[in-house]
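Onboarding guide, step 5: your first structure request.
Type a short instruction followed by the sequence, for example:

Predict the 3D structure of this protein.
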Amino acid sequence: MRVNEDRIKAFEREIGELKLKGASNQQERLLLVAGALLLVAGLVVAVLGAVQAVGTTNTADQLAAIASGSLLGIALVAAGVALFVRYSYARFLRFWLTRLLYEQQAQTDRIVEAIGKLAPQQ
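The system replies with structure tokens like these:
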């Protein structure tokens, strides 16, 4: 097990030397929530715009209600969906990559152990 601990420490040291800036979990969560809120707000604005458009018989008022309410709502929905999907997908891919690295490390350890058993002891 000492070999594994040495490898982990070497890996952590090499990562530290790269000086990579990781994503802030708080900032990512904030943008994920902002995306969900934009999605909900966009739906509300779109529905209010549609209700205003239906509530009048004047064509000019209907077009104004559609332009100000429904189109703005659709734009907010699109922005909210983009933020939500982007940060949800990033979280999933980060988890998937971590899992993949862990499984590959375990597989490498099993191969090294098997080779060590097959090699003649000196």
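Each response can be followed by summary notes, for example: Residues 59-118 form the longest helix (60 residues).
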